[in-house]
Design a protein that fits this description.
Length: about 400
Amino acid sequence: MTRSSPIARGGATCGQRRNIPQNEIRWDMAKYPTDRPTVGYPMATLSTPHERALTLLFSELTRTAAEDAQALIGTPGTIATRRNAQGTTFWVRRYSDAYGKRREAYLGKLGQPDTEAQVQALRDKIDTTNAVISSTRVLARAGFATLDKKAYFALASLHNHGLFSAGAFLIGSHAYGALLNALGIRAAPYVTQDVDVATRSALALPELPSFLEMLQASGVELFEIPALNRRQPSTSFKERGSSRLRVDLLVPSRDEKYTVVPVPELKAHATGLPYLAYLLGTSLLVPILSSHGAVTVRVPVAERFAVHKLIVSQLRAKSGDKPARDLQQAAVLLETLAEHYPGAIEDAVGAVPRGARKHLGKGVQALAKYLPAAATEAWQAVDPRGKRRTRG
């Protein structure tokens, strides 16, 4: 279990609580068979457990991704030699970028010891990445959550610059998908091209390029989206053209106002969100999967993610679909956590800031539309007094 720096940008400081063990196989299929419903076994209704062989494969990918400090951007590609007009032979990596355009990256002159070592190391990385892609393909077909190519490259670039190891978080629906994978379950699919990156504390990384430059190093053509108030700096980044890919930078706010907050170490500004400090109070490192590889990112623990979803569902405008999505995701996680990680939800509820408790209460009441009444352990954990289990 990891913890971000105590130098908080805003909001209350949250201590560590129990969370999901990072290297634990989520389901024991010998104990909980899925080929036949059996009285007496815990049977989730909102999610389906993955087979044990798949969770083992995911665990192997988790270890591989954790060992990879620098992910390949673009397809793995191949290594070849080229000769210039002066007759000099040199090594190149040939690959395709985020838009499918063929690229070549210069590696160095043929025969130089340092270059030959670099080429061999790159060959090994290409082989490893291809193996990861093959495994990811198997998991994706079985229902594990994956990212599309451009979103993955954007996050891989942030990973390569050390943001997640330094304390930055992936939150939002992509983090939800990563948590489903880590829990070993599949649930109703979600579709989003929004990438939400958050930081609670100043990131101690010297001489970083700007956040926008890090995103652009992915090969995806992102630019700052002008704020509605032209006097305020941008906090969001979008791909050019008709693409819906969007990256939002977020930090905790000190109250329930949505403010614009400078993030000097990233040479950027972020949107301040209410009670985000609570969500980012504890974390774990998990891989995100794509058809182009896997990289490790930091995400909130599942129990705080679920409880925070209940809170923010009551802060959002009720005209959109986001409150319903918040409640659906919370319901799935709460049901699973209550069955297999007793005490985790109670700890997360107990750590909720005082000002957010009224919103949590309303969120629990709205949850009755999404969490079955039969999920008694989840209800007892999130609503121990049983006063808000009325269906709307």
